[in-house]
Amino acid sequence: MKLRIIITSAIAVILAISCIQQKSQKVNIFICGDSTAQSYNPSKTVMRGWAQMLPEYFDKNVNIINKAKAGRSTKSYLAEGRWQEVLDSIKPNDYVIIQFGHNDASTKPERHASYPDYKSNLLKMIKEAKAKQARPILATSIVMRTFKDNALIDDRLKGYPAITRQLADSLNIPLIDTWLKSRDLVIMMGDEPSKELYMWIPAGVDSIRPDGSQDDTHLQAPGAHAIAKIVAKEIKKQNLKDIAEYVVIP
Q: Which PANTHER family would you find in this protein's record (predicted)?
């Protein structure tokens, strides 16, 4: 009888220790994307990527690994081996947020992906991530701040956000519709106020762009924070396993 009690107690202790160890292991979120997400050197530019700010919206139990790179499309990200680097690093239960479209819409041949190719490239990433027991999330591109007659228009991204939504729906994987959410944000702010989110800067502010810029695609810190907050809120809202509970909204 005593032996049975000892064995039962030992098993309970082992299970408790195992649960504590599992809780202490950080969950990784990899970010695959373009210049709107990548990290920038604060000493060189005021430009920021939303994924650069994402760690501020999670507690210490989540590790953000930003692998986004400027100028990349699904086509070039795969061709340059950047996706393979991510694939070699991910572990079971890691998350991978995949956000492309801006450069897929480009006319540059090394970047451009047709609609069928764009869908095929995303599908490849999703399947390969799942094969490693990781958890892919699709995200639409952020809106391009294009106003005409006080109305926001965004026709430069064409059908790429729609393809992203349709693919997420057909595969039943999480979708973060950053295009729609950022579009709503910009519309509510209006033409002039929303410039503070993007790289609308005067001369002498940025060492990389000394003459200033009127850029409706890339973000300054307020815009990067706004998108990161959108992403974190969606993760919380969708109650994504192992990361939703660690979202911190300041």
A: PUTATIVE (AFU_ORTHOLOGUE AFUA_2G17250)-RELATED (PTHR43695), RHAMNOGALACTURONAN ACETYLESTERASE (PTHR43695:SF1)
- With a pLDDT cut of 70, the percent of the chain lying above it is 90
**pTM of this structure:** 0.90
CB burial of 176-214 (b: ≥16 within 10 Å; e: otherwise) equals bbbbebbbebbeebebeebbebbbbbeeeebeebeeebe
Half-sphere exposure of 174 (CA within 13 A, CB side): 24
DSSP at 94: -
Which amino acid, one-letter code, is at 204?
G
- Which among 216, 234, 186 has a CA at the least distance from the CA of 36? 216
CATH topology of domain 26-246: Rossmann fold (3.40.50)
Nearest to 94 by CA among 2, 160, 31, 154: 31
Give the start-to-end residue ranges of the domains of the chain: 26-246
Q: With beta carbons less than 8 A apart as the criterion, state whether 29 and 210 touch.
A: no
| Residues 186/145, Cβ–Cβ less than 8 Å | yes
What H or E segment, with its residue span, contains residue 64?
strand 62-66
Q: Tell me the CA distances in angstroms from 214 to 46, 86, 101, 178, 221, one per residue in order.
A: 13, 33, 21, 22, 16
Task: Please provide the average confidence, as pLDDT, over all residues in the chain.
Answer: 92
